[in-house]
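During the reporting period the student researcher (J.K.) took over the structure-prediction task from the postdoctoral fellow and processed the backlog of single-chain submissions. One of the processed entries is reproduced below for the supervisory committee.
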Amino acid sequence: MMESLVLYGLLGIVAGLLAGLLSRRFLQIFFVVFLTYVAVQMLRGSRPCASRELPGAWGMGAAGGVIGLTSSLVGIGGGTLSVPFLVWHNVEMHRAIGTSAAIGFPIAVAGCCGYLINGLGATGLPPHCLGYLYLPALFPLVVCSMLTAPLGARIAHRLPVSRLKSAFAVLLICVGIKMLWDVL
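J.K. obtained the following structure tokens:
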């Protein structure tokens, strides 16, 4: 079923194309509200119904589409959305983080393709852009992510679930504050 998340997560290409049509301000406000909601739920320790399970292939596909589309629209990794989705469906936190790391790569590649295609021929971009991708930032980000991912995985598996959820919620709040600051 996780492959459904990946396949539909490739809708990130569409998101890259849509991002050119939507205002940055709208996207930031939408995402700040969403992040705040998810962070508050995690900090409150809200628990899903014990019988809640992952949806079938169509439900996973729809969730993957929403995660891929939203992640690409607001320029974040899919983990920000996929971890809360999986945890809400009673997937153990450590497994949700591992799954998120695995599906994050195809979502990121799809989003990059969308921004590349959408930005081809755009005017007023700084030098060294390929579409809307700023290559001097892209390559160091990719390299640093690849080098630090194993460290993050080791730390995540050593932390108790409650501390991991709290740390993730704080991260969401920080991202939300940064986006809200940019809007104001």
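The committee noted the following: The chain has one domain: 2-183.
J.K. will present the remaining backlog at the next meeting.
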